[in-house]
Amino acid sequence: MSIEGLVCSKSQCRFTFVFLKKLWKVLRLLLSVVLSVQVLQYCRRMLPDDSFEKDINICRKRFAWRNPILGRFEPDWKPFLTSRELFWQDDTPARRQLNDLLQFHILPFGLNSSVLHAFQTLQLLPQQGMPKSIDRLWCRRCVVVGNSNSLRGRGFGAMIDSHNIVIRLNDAPVKEHKADVGEKTSIRLFFPESALPNPLDNNDKGNADGAHCIQEPGFYLGEGDAAEHNE
C-alpha cells in the first residue's frame, strides 16, 4: 500500500475531526449527567431532615432495597422476635445463623444466657410479632425516637407519625411536644429510673397504648417487666 493511500484527503480529515469532536461533546454530557445523578442520590441519603422524605417516596422508589447497607440484610429474619422463634428449630442457613447470634453472642448482638428471661418477657406481651395490619403491607417503615432534645423546634411530628412502627427510648414526653416528636407510640423502652409511675404524665390518654418495656440496670436484652398500657 502506498503512503498516499494512508493519508486522508483534506475534506475527509475535516469531517473525521468534526465527527470526533461532536462525539466527545455527547459523551462528556452523558458522563456529567451520570455523575450528577450519583452525587444527588448520595447527598439525599446523607440528608437527615424531612426534605429527603418529601422529595423521594421511599416505598414507591424501593429506595431501601437499593441501599448498599442492606448487603448485610437477611430477608428470612423477622423484624420482631417472638417467644416461639426463640426455640424454633429449622435446619436452614438463616435459622442456624440466628441461633448462633441468640445463643452464643453477648449483648448487644445476642441474648446468650438471657434466652429464658427474653422468653418470659415476651410472654407478657398481649401480641408478639408484627401486627397483621402492618405485616400485610409490602413496604413497612419504622423509626426510633430518642430523648436528646435535638428534635425540639424541628417540626418532625407528622413525619415521625407517618411510620408504621414508632419506637421511643426512655420516658421522654410526648404531651405538649407533638409538633416536634409526634404522638404515635408502638414500643417504648426505658430503664426503671427514667420511668414515671403513670404513663399518662408524659402522654395523652389515647397515645399511651403499646408495649412499654422496662429494662433492668446491668441489662441484658429481654430481662425485666413488660406491660401494656391501654387506658
TrEMBL record:
Topology in the lipid bilayer: Single-pass type II membrane protein
GO cellular component, as recorded: Golgi membrane
Top-rank lineage group of the source organism: Eukaryota
Broad class of where this protein is predominantly found: Golgi
InterPro entries named among the record's database cross-references: Glyco_trans_29 (IPR001675), Glycosyltransferase_29 (IPR051142), GT29-like_sf (IPR038578)
GO molecular function: beta-D-galactosyl-(1->3)-N-acetyl-beta-D-galactosaminide alpha-2,3- sialyltransferase; beta-galactoside (CMP) alpha-2,3-sialyltransferase activity
GO terms (BP aspect): glycolipid biosynthetic process
Keyword field: Glycoprotein, Glycosyltransferase, Golgi apparatus, Membrane, Signal-anchor, Transferase, Transmembrane, Transmembrane helix
Localization in the cell: Golgi apparatus membrane
Pfam families given in the database record: Glyco_transf_29 (PF00777)
Family: Belongs to the glycosyltransferase 29 family.
Record protein name field: CMP-N-acetylneuraminate-beta-galactosamide-alpha-2,3-sialyltransferase 4-like
Biological source species: Chelydra serpentina (Snapping turtle)
Upper classification of the organism: Eukaryota, Metazoa, Chordata, Craniata, Vertebrata
